[in-house]
Amino acid sequence: MNRRLLVPAVVLLLSVALLVGQAATAPAPGVQPATPDAPEGGEGAYPGKTLISVQVYGWFTEDNGQAIIVDQNGTRTWTYDPPHAYVFDAEALDNGNVQVAFGQNPLAENVRCPDEYYNGERPAGKNGCIYNRVVEVDPDTNEIVWEHSWYDAFPTHHEVHDADRLPSGETVIIDMGNDRTFTVDQSGEITWEWYAENHLTEGTEFWNEYVAPLPEEEQEEFRRKGAEGDWTHMNDVDLLENGNLQMSIRNFDTTIEVERPSGDIVGVVGAPTRHEVMNEQHNPNRLERHDTLLVADSENDRVVEVHASNGSVVWEYDGTGSGEKLAWPRDADRLPNGNTLVTDSRNFRVLEVGPNGSVVWSHSLADRKGIVYEADRLGTGDEPLPEEPDNVPAGGELQSRSTGGVGDTVATVESWLGFVFPPWVGIMEVLTGLVGLVAGVALVWEGYRDGWFADIP
Question: Tens of pLDDT along 115-126?
Answer without folding.
Answer: 777 655 444 444
